[in-house]
Design a protein that fits this description.
Length: 497
Amino acid sequence: MKLTPVPRAIRHVRRVSTIALATLCAACTIGPDYVRPAMTVPATYKEQTASGLWQQATPDPAGAIDSRWWTLFHDDTLNALCERALKANQTIAEYEAAYRSARAQVAASRASLFPTVSFAGSGTRSGGGASSSSTYSSSSGSVSSYTTKNVTGELEASWEPDLWGSVRRSVESSRAAADASDAQLAGERLSILATLTVDYFTLRLADADLALLVGQRRIDAELLALTEAKFRNGVSSYDDVRTAHNTMQAIDESIATAQLTRRQYEHAIAVLVGEAPATFSLPVQDDYRFELPVLPATVPSLLLQRRPDVVQAERTVAEYNAKIGVAKAGYFPTLTLSADGGYSGTSLAHLVSLPTRFWSLGLNVAQTIFDAGATSAAVDQARANYDQQVASYRQTVLSAFQDVEDYLSAVQITSQQAVAAQAVAVRSGELSASQLRGFDAGTSSRMDVLDTQLTEMQDRKLSLDYSGQALQDAVLLVKALGGGWQPSEAAEKTAAQ
């Protein structure tokens, strides 16, 4: 038996494989290699240095806010709400799905680096008889039927070597897009949790305000009764009674406003933790203590690494940088290698045999000769898109620095206001106690005592409002600093795909 077709096929395979390997080794990656856009980064934050409030020690470049930053506020209820939001918030679930889609796109892009192999098989059985037009006469002169069978098995392979790095740039672009999607997910998660925390503190502030407003109303009601008694005794005019009525009515309006605020923020918290407002409630806690946490000192350079929107903008720049190389690959020819082989016979039992074998190898080269400037336009568009993303990245960085400076100063000022208001409230309490002792001694009137108590409650409310605002500003400062997110973990997962 002559087996010459086998060595010849092997020689063809070796020759094509050698050409493909040499071509692949000589392949280059066109387009600019990515370099992060340069940004001028200050050594320290202006407001951090000016206030000293958060400057607990020399800034540590390795220091960072904990990723579970809400635990800094030492509130078990808040901790539980944040954990529920991480698991059940539908906006977080939406962006998590988008991130998984972006990771799948990386795998799809990488698949283009490898050959495509497919298999096809078929089998047919056909025949004819006396009533068929396809009849024949036997040697005896009689008409007989016939049956034919055909079985085919074929394996096909095709591969377009990445000669100019177009596929590799596509993979690079997909990876950068996946990293940007991961940063977007982190940004949404941070935004949801920061909103939840601010809403929670606003609700607790409404609890405290309601308790003080109810106390004020009790005092105003007693003042109104005393004023009416004085009017009946001819000591006061009815204008004083009207004024007392208006004061109490204003307190009723404030109570209603505080109640509405609490209910609306309770509804908002319910949605953030993935629950219908009708089935969610938070117990009233009117003695809540608004205490600022201590944050680790950080340096501005960390903002470029750990603030999600900055990372997202930077990764988008990398994505569009890679797309320049993809566009420039249109200037160069494409090479496609193909091979197929199989067996075709009349019997499955004798299918895999040399006489039934067939094979072929192919090489196709394609080059655009004239496209009226379409490729050049695509390259120019890719470069313009890249420049647009660079400008967006730099603006995002500048806005991030502004946010940090704004909330550093906000926390500083509101904290100072809270301290001053607290001092006023303490002195008002001392004055109220003094008036009460005077009333017991017969040197002060009941009206004087109630007036000083009302002033004390108003001062306490103002102090609480400042303290609550400072706590909310602290949350927004944590958000501005990136919330302790570590993008390197996501980048490693994406790169490993």
